[in-house]
Amino acid sequence: MMKENTFVFHNGVEIPNIGFGTWQIPNEEAYDAVTMALKNGYTHIDTALAYRNEENVGKAIKDFDIAREKVFITSKLPAQIKGYQETLEAFNETITNLGVDYLDLYLIHAPWPWDEKGKDCTEENIQTWKAMEKLYNDGKIRAIGVSNFSKSDIQAIIDACEIVPMVNQIPFYIGHDQKSLLAYCKEHDIVVEAYSPLATGQILNSPEIKEMSEKYGVTPAQLCIRYCLEHETLPLPKSTHEERIIENSKLDFKITPEDVKKLDAIEDVRAK
Predict the structure, then answer these.
(1) For a FRET experiment, which of 22, 61, 167, 267 has its CA 20 to 30 Å from that of 35?
(2) What superkingdom heads the lineage (predicted)?
(3) How far apart are CA 106 and CA 76, in angstroms?
């Protein structure tokens, strides 16, 4: 469920409605980037063991001297790690790296290893999810979810396990709105997080996006991030430049339904 400044998971946990993504930010740069994000009002930080920057993400949060409960921290189980015990061990590595006692959200990074994309890992994912349920029930994680999961991947979890995922983090941007998967997640009360809301910058030069951003008096990036919110998805923009970090959070405008439809009609730049 989407509220004014937060989304609410089906277990009642609230998450700030915009996150600071740290994908592709090297460990040596992550400290300064996360510090800038916290300084400029972000309270939702997204990382992953595979990003190899958890240590400096955690150090930045600790050094900023903000109460732990005031920051929502997400991390992810590496895509190639599957299985019950393997998940418990990887989780312990993550919280050690971050220097925290618990996570706010923990995700399975992908349903298959990145170098075996499309491989059927259904049984392994079920065992992995059962380990995550244990961590959740033990109070080590406030919410659990998945990333890059298709409808069938999620359904297999729902059919075999006790807890419906609270989140599915997927690539979502203008031209790639994943209507069918989004509808499925809404049906099951699964919050969709939108990573790469700017398509790693590839949509910012679109003439249609530029023209519409001028109409609203915002930047193309702000329009793209606001588009995610208009579709009730939670955007995770990232930057290492302070002016852009600030800009990406200034979203106090609305896109009209008519203009959202125009943006929906834009073709996927990555498909060309």
Answers:
(1) 167
(2) Bacteria
(3) 5
Where does 9-200+233-251 sit in CATH, by number? Answer: 3.20.20.100
What single letter denotes the amino acid at residue 100?
V
Cα 148 to Cα 146: distance, rounded to the nearest angstrom: 7
Cα Rg, the chain, nearest whole Å: 18
Tell me the pLDDT tens digit for each residue of 213-255.
999 999 999 999 999 999 999 999 999 999 999 999 999 999 9
**Domain map (residue ranges) of the chain:** 9-200+233-251
Q: pTM score, two decimals?
A: 0.95
**Is 149:184 a contact under the CB 8 Å cutoff?**
no
Distance between CA atoms of 167 and 63, rounded to whole angstroms?
Answer: 29
Catalytic residues: 51
Packed helices 122-137 and 151-160: angle between N→C axes, nearest 10 degrees:
60
